[in-house]
Amino acid sequence: MNKIITPTGKMITLVRREFWEQRISFLLVPFSCIALAVIALAVSVIQAYFNDYSILANLANPSIDPMTAAERMVDFAAAPIEVREHFWDMFYMSSTSLLFLVFWGIMIYYFLATLYQQRKDRSILFWNSMPVSDTLTILSKLLAGLVIAYAVFLLSMLAMQLLMMVILSIYGLLFDVEIWSTFIAPANIFYRFACNVVFGIVNIFWCLPVYAWLLLCSAWAKSAPLAWAAGPLIICVVPELIIYERSDILLVFFQHMIPMWMFENSETGFSGILSQVMNGELLLAAIVGVGLVYAAIRLNRSEDV
Amino acid sequence: MKTVVRAENLCKYFGDTAAMDNISFSVQQGSIVGLVGPNGAGKTSTLKAILGLTGFEGTLEVLGKDPRKSRHLLMEDVCFIADVGILPRWLKVANAIDYIEGVHPCFNRERALELIGETKISLDKKVGQLSKGMVTQLHLALILAINVKLLVLDEPTLGLDILYQKSFFDRLLNDYFDNETSIIISTHQVEEVKSILTHLMFIDDGKISLNISMDELADTYAEVLVSSDKYEEAEALGPIHVRNILGARAMLFENARPEALQELGDIHVPSVTDLFVAKIHQSRGSQQ
After folding, report:
1. Which chain A residues contact residue B51 at CB under 8 A?
2. Which of chain B's residues have a Cβ under 8 Å away from the Cβ of A304?
3. Using the beta-carbon criterion (under 8 Å), do A303 and B80 form an inter-chain contact?
4. Which residues of chain B are within 8 Å of residue A302 when distances are taken between CB atoms?
5. Would you list the domain boundaries of chain B?
6. Helical H runs in chain B?
7. Domain locations in chain A?
8. Averaged over B2-27, what is the pLDDT?
9. What superfamily would CATH give domain B3-205?
C-alpha cells in the first residue's frame, strides 16, 4: 500500500536534501567561524591577563591612559550602565558582523549555483525522476537558504556570544568584579538575538528580489549564470555612471543584496530595524521578489540536459 | 487492456536534425517494450518526452496525463533511469534512501536495503566514492524498490558486469514485472533483453521503422540460410537484407510465404540484431 506524503513532509525532505548538499556552507562554515572567534578571544584574554593589560580597555579605547588591567576592570564595572551596554553592543556586533558577511556571501553563491549545478552534473534527471514539482523545489531552496540556514547562523552566533560571555566572565572573576552587572546584564545577548530574528524575517522580503534574480539566472542560464546575473545590471549601471557619475541602481542592488543597514541601527533594536525598512520599498521588494521567484519556477530548465 | 502511453505525431528537432519526426505509437499495460536504435536515432528524446523532460510538438498521454503539464504527478506512477550516471556525487547512499522515502509514496525502504545489501555498496559511502558500475547498481536498486505503473530504462545496464546484468534482467522480469506494470527499455544490448520483451520498436533518424510484438515478429520475419545454387530463386522473393555466411547467404524476408521459403534452406526467426540491421538499411535505402 502506498504511503501518503504531505507537501509539508516533502518540503522537510527537500530542505534536508539542501543541507546534505550544502553541509560545508550551511554548517561547517558557521561552526568554524565560531570556533575561530572563540579561540581568538580566549587567546587574547590569556595574553592580556599574563601581560597585565586590559582587554576591556583595548577594545573600548586603545588610546586610553596607562591604567593597570585591574584598575581598568574596576573602572569599567563602575561605569554607567549605558556605557557598559554601548561597549558590549559594539563588541558583540563586531564579533557577529563577520558571520553575517559570510552568510550573505554564501547565500549569493548558493542561489546563483544551486539550480545551474544540478543541470551541469545532470543530477537534475535524478531529481526530476521523483514526484516533486518545480514550485516545491524552488520554494525549498528559498526556505533552506533564507530561513533554515539563517536560523543555523543565528543560533551559531548566539552560541558564540554565550561562549564569549563565559570566557569574559571567567576573566572578570580574576579581578573580583561583579560578573552579572559587568558582563552579563549589559550584554543583552538574548535581546540582540531576538532583534536578529526579526531582522531575518524582514530580510527575507528585503533581499528576495536579488536572491530570486540569482535563482532565476541559475534556473535559466545554459552556461555562466554569473554573467547572466551581472550582465543586465552592468548594462543599466554603466550609462548611469557615465551620465550622472553615480549609480543609484547599483546602490539599491547592493543594499538589497547585503543589508548593511542592520548594523547602522543595531543600537535601536526592534524599532531601528522596523523604522528602516517598514516602508514602500520593502513592499515593492517583496512584490518584485515574488514575481522573480514565479519566473524562476516557470523557467527552470530541465530540457536538453 | 489499458493504454499506458499514447503518442501521436510527436516532433522534435535539434536544428536540422530530427529527434522525433512525426512518430506515433502506443504502449499497453503489462508490456515490455524494447526501444532499439543507433546512436542519435531519437531514443533518449522519445523517452524524455514520455517523462516530461523535454519539449515537443504533438499529442502525448502517459497514464492519462500530459507529461509536459503534470511531470511531478506522473512521477508518482513512473520511474526512470537515464543513460548515464545521474546520481549527484555528494549524495550519501543512506541519504539517497532517506530522500526517496521522503518524497515517493511507492518507495519500499526495506526492499531498497535488501537490494543494496546484495551489492558491495555501503550506506555511508558517497556516490562520488563508488565505481561507475556500483553507481548504476545503486540506482537500479533504488528504482527497483519503487512500485510504479511504468518503468522507463535508458541503457540501464551500461557499465555493469555480465553477472549483474543477468541478475538485473532476471530480477526485472521475475520480481518487478507483473501484468499491472509496463516497462520501456532502450538498450544496445538487444540480445540480452530480447527474451524478456513483449514488443520491439526500432527507431532511426527520428522515425519508427518497426513496431511489432514478439509474437508477430516470429510470424512476420524469417531468415533463411540459402545455398549458392538457390540465390536467384531466393532473390526473386525480395529479401529485405542479405549477408554472407561461410559460403552461403543468410536472407531475411518480410511477410514471405513459409512454404516458398522452406524450399530455399533452413528457416529460423532472425535475431533482433540482424533484424535491426536489416530494417535500418531498408529505411535508409528507401529514403535515398
Report:
1. 128-129
2. 54
3. no
4. 53
5. 3-205, 216-287
6. 43-51, 71-74, 93-103, 109-117, 132-144, 162-171, 190-193, 214-220, 231-235, 258-262, 272-287
7. 7-58+65-304
8. 92
9. P-loop containing nucleotide triphosphate hydrolases (3.40.50.300)
Closest Cα to residue B188, out of B165, B206, B212? B165
Chain A environment of B89 (Cβ under 8 Å): 121
What are the cell numbers at B138? Answer: 545503486
- Nearest Cα of chain B lies from the Cα of A35 at a distance, in angstroms, of 25
Please tell me the distance from the alpha carbon of residue B69 to that of residue A42, in angstroms, as a whole number: 59
Give yes or no for a contact between B266 and B224, defined as CB atoms under 8 angstroms apart. yes
B55 contacts in chain A (CB < 8 Å): 303
Residues B181-217 have pLDDT tens digits of 899 999 877 777 888 899 999 998 899 989 999 989 8
Determine the Cα–Cα distance for residues B226 and B264; give it in Å rounded to an integer.
Answer: 6
Q: Which residue, among A21, A126, A302, would best test binding to B if mutated, counting the most B CBs under 10 Å from its CB?
A: A126
Q: Residue A275 and residue A286: Cα distance in Å, rounded?
A: 17
ipTM: 0.85
Quick check: A133 and B102 CB within 8 A?
Answer: no
Residue A237 and residue A250 in contact, taking contact as beta carbons nearer than 8 Å: yes
Mind telling me how many Å the CA of B205 is from chain A's nearest CA? Answer: 18
**Mean pLDDT of all residues belonging to chain A:** 86
Closest among B75, B53, B63, B79 to B144, alpha carbons compared: B79
CB contact under 8 A, A10 and B87: no
Hey, are the CB atoms on B95 and A17 less than 8 Å from each other? yes
Summarize pLDDT for B208-246 with one digit per residue, the tens.
989 999 989 888 999 998 888 888 888 888 888 888 887
Distance CA B223, CA B213 (A): 18
Contact, A138 vs A293, CB < 8 A? yes
Question: Is A4 in Cβ contact with B75 (below 8 Å)?
Answer: no
User: Which one of A9, A131, A304 has the shortest CB-CB distance to B75?
Assistant: A131
Residue type at position A272: G
CA distances from B96 to A103, A122, A126, B72, B213 (A): 27, 16, 10, 18, 37
Fold classified for B216-287: Alpha-Beta Plaits (3.30.70)
Residues of B with CB under 8 A from a CB of A: 51, 53-55, 71-76, 79-82, 84, 86-92, 95, 98-100, 102-107, 139, 147
CA distance A217 to chain B (A): 20
Residue B122, all three cell numbers:
555501503
All cell numbers assigned to B256: 514471405
Q: What residues of chain B lie within 8 A of the CB of A126, using their CB?
A: 82, 86-88, 139
Q: What is the DSSP string of A191-228?
A: HHHHHHHHHHHHHHHHHHHHHHHHHHHHHH-SS-HHHH
State the pTM of this model. 0.85
Cβ separation B99–A118 shorter than 8 A = no
